[in-house]
Amino acid sequence: MRPRHLLLAVFVAALWGVNFVVIDVGLDHFPPLLFGALRFLAAAVPAVFLVGRPPVKWRWIIGVGLTLGVGKFGLLFVGMGAGMPAGLSSLVLQAQAVFTALFAVVALGERLRGARAVGLAVAVAGIVVAAVDEGLSGPFLGFALVIAAAAFWGVSNILTRKAAAPDAFRFIVWVSAVPVLPLLLLSLAVEGPHADAEALRSLDWSGVGALLFVAWISTVLGFGLWGHLLRTYDASAVAPFSLLVPVFGMSSAALLLDEEVTPLRWGAAVLLVGGIAVASLAGTGRPGFRRVVRTGGPAAAGEATAGEAATGEATTGAAAAGEAAAGAAAARPSVAPGNAVP
After folding, report:
1. Which end of the chain is more exposed for a tag (fewer CB within 10 A), N or C?
2. Contact 34, 248 (CB under 8 A)
3. Do residues 163 and 62 lie in contact, with contact meaning Cβ atoms separated by under 8 Å?
4. Who's near 86: CB < 8 A, 6+ residues apart?
């Protein structure tokens, strides 16, 4: 990569890592489910009225919208609202790579072996260490909810691959519109209309800023920059930078929220991120510029099409995460580095 693109990739990872801190700030102003509904509303409107519907079946738009928006982000926000620390959330959410790989075995018939299997086993060990650390120092319910969020993220990654949307931007805009109403109805039912009304009535610039950062800076800007990198380089060259997200997430939480990062938690980070890195990069080709010239007949055209498909999956994953990395950014998207795009 060119130096300026290296800096750009690190910048996006930093945005997505700090995003967990901003979510924590937003949860001080909004009930979790209402915050999720408003986040997707701000991300989808007015863009959904300006771009045409992507050429994919409705079931994929609705399926990804529900699993990603309601399942992943709903549970993530509720888990963090229940006391799950922001920094640890940015780390544990990377378990989505493990779930994605396991679901791909069941749904897509993929096989795990060699370095990929070993890497995922190491990542699972990291999750266990993180669970022990959180069990000793914080509410385990929040931890369990974030693990469940990672599982829903894995399902959404599989559905995204099945959708194979040719235009990732239009796809994620329409996907963002799906969870708004379900999250709002859940908020009214679970959190209550009084809590929602009070949050909106007492809204200040800090709450507005957190909402806009999560919706526009983390999602729209982060997605746009990440997509630019994926259009310029192979996914295998860009994806590893997503592993920096929990590093920035834990560091920014320690600096800005005074969260304690225990030796056990750093050990969990090394195991989880290292394991995902091994699983994601095993067998990938040499990273470099994306090939854009199509010559050599059908075979070359097939390679270009495959590259475009990988790019589309990675870009969609990144937009959905806006936080922790591109959900399907690796050359084998089923074993991707965490997309923590909360």
Report:
1. N
2. no
3. no
4. 20, 21, 23, 24, 80, 249, 253, 257, 259
- ∠ CA 228-305-63 to the nearest 5 degrees? 75
Report which DSSP code applies to 323: S
Read off the pLDDT of residues 146-194 as tens digits, 9 standing for 90 and up: 999 999 999 998 998 888 888 777 888 899 999 999 999 999 999 999 9
Instruction: For residue 289, give the 3-state DSSP assignment.
Output: strand
Single-letter code of the amino acid located at 276: I
Distance (Å) of CA 282 to CA 114, 277, 292 = 9, 8, 24
In the chain, how many H helices and how many E strands? 18, 0
Tell me the Cα Rg of the chain: 19
Torsion, CA 206, CA 16, CA 304, CA 164, rounded to 10: -70
Tens of pLDDT along 123-144? 899 888 888 877 666 678 899 9
**CA dihedral of 149, 145, 44, 170, whole degrees rounded to 10:** 0
pTM, entire model:
0.81
Give DSSP secondary structure letters for 122-158: HHHHHHHHHHHHHHHHS-HHHHHHHHHHHHHHHHHHH
- Cβ atoms of 32 and 239 within 8 Å: the answer is no
